[in-house]
Amino acid sequence: MPQKKISIRIDGELVTALEGQTILQAAQEAGKAIPTLCYLEGLSPAGACRICMVEVAGTERLLPACTTPVQEGLAVTTVSARLTQYRRMTVELLLIERNHVCSVCVSNGHCELQAMATSLGITNTRYWYDFPTLPVDMTHERFVLDHNRCILCTRCVRACAELEGANVWDVGGRGIHTRVTSDLAQPWGESPTCTSCGKCVQACPTGALAEKGAAVEEMTKRTDRLTRLAGSKRAQP
Amino acid sequence: MHNNLRDSLDEKERAFIDQVIAERSSRPGALLGILQAVQNHNPRNYLPMETLHYVAAKTRVPPSQVYSVATFYALFNLQPQGEHTVSICRGTACHTRGSRELLESLVLELGLGQRDDGDSGGADKATLTTADGVFTVRTVACFGQCALAPVVEINHSICGHVNEHTLQRQLKELARESD
Ligand code: SF4
Ligand code: FES
Ligand code: FES
């Protein structure tokens, strides 16, 4: 059954969307870019980062574009001073929560968090840095997990569960103590479920998950491959 | 080391867990109830890693998810709990009535250093157990008994308008019972 077509307005422009689509998907198809961090095309949306917040006419609250489904007559604003203010704040809060020192990071120059901060014009943070001392898990023979760079987007969790089916990752703890954890929080290298496929590494928007041996600025990610893989999986009967 | 986890649970414990899982079948969301029943059965009221491992294997829920659930809910303990549990309210009303001082004096009295291993939950969400395993001190966000602030719960009974002296007296009594 073909999906029902509905009309919505994005930044004043009338566009056609399909029922069941999210605001983000409809906007992307209409050629409008909404900034995202935790969204990765091909993985289920998580609504974890709150960067994609948009204004929807008729409600005071901002809504995440990546998880909010379109409705007939919806009018969305994706660019406004208010949104920029919130997005900036969100990125600043991510930056102070861990030690994102770009100059010594494997992903310097290829990091989605860094690119987001740059595009929002963030040059400093208005909040105190938390400077937590977090461990770096080097136990895996090919990969590294540096908690100091993690923004808890859960893209690794979803890539592992949805594309590899291994379910190595999840988030443990809560609040400021939340960490991505492998299995029962044993070292990654001892994980009985990890297949060493590297999908989590490719999914990670920052330098938190990287290949061993990569030096500063050397780690580039191929998220496009994950998206293609997800597409071909869906196409299978 | 984790491969041997299953072997370290004894026969009786495994049979109990099997039964709990069988009773709750495989309906989604069953994990919470399973973990709660298994924890209650544990003499020290906690979920050892071996147990989590066994539950994951038996329910076919990925270990990462079992760990996620067990560490998200304050209800679950991954460390052995003391014989008596003293929960100090750190909600707003109790805070303004001096619950921090109450907590600090209790921690001092019982010789519990505020250790910060990074994953214990920080100062305001503490769970500390004395070395002799007699007392566990934890903090709670609000008991909903704000009129009685500061509130302390001792072994599931609520005590209102608590001060250092009344608290110490009660703990002495409990300690005597445990001897
Ligand atoms: S390790 Fe990377 S992909 Fe995983 S939650 Fe952290 S930032 Fe996201
Ligand atoms: S992209 Fe929508 S919440 Fe992260
Ligand atoms: S703040 Fe302590 S009971 Fe409400």
Attribute tags:
heterodimer, A: 237 residues, alpha+beta, Ubiquitin-like (UB roll), Alpha-Beta Plaits, 2 domains, five-stranded mixed sheet, three-stranded antiparallel sheet, 10 strands, 25% helix, globular, B: 179 residues, Glutaredoxin, 5 strands, 12% strand, binds iron/sulfur cluster, binds FE2/S2 (inorganic) cluster
- Compute the number of helices of chain B: 7
Please name the CATH topology of the largest domain in chain B. Answer: Glutaredoxin
**Total beta-strand segments of chain A:** 10
**Rg of chain A (CA only):** 19 Å
What compounds sit in this structure?
A: iron/sulfur cluster, FE2/S2 (inorganic) cluster
> What is the rounded Rg of chain B?
18 Å
Structural class of chain A: alpha+beta
Strand order of the largest sheet of chain A: 2-1-5-3-4
Mean pLDDT of chain B: 88
Main sheet: strands, sense, barrel of chain B: 5 strands, mixed
Helix fraction of chain A by DSSP (H/I, runs of at least 4):
25-40%
Helix content range of chain B = 40-55%
- Give the strand content of chain B: 5-15%
Query: Which CATH C-level class of the largest domain in chain A is it?
Result: Alpha Beta
Which H/E pattern describes the elements of chain A? Answer: EEHEEEHHEEHEEHEH
Identify the quaternary structure here.
Answer: heterodimer
Strand content of chain A: 15-25%
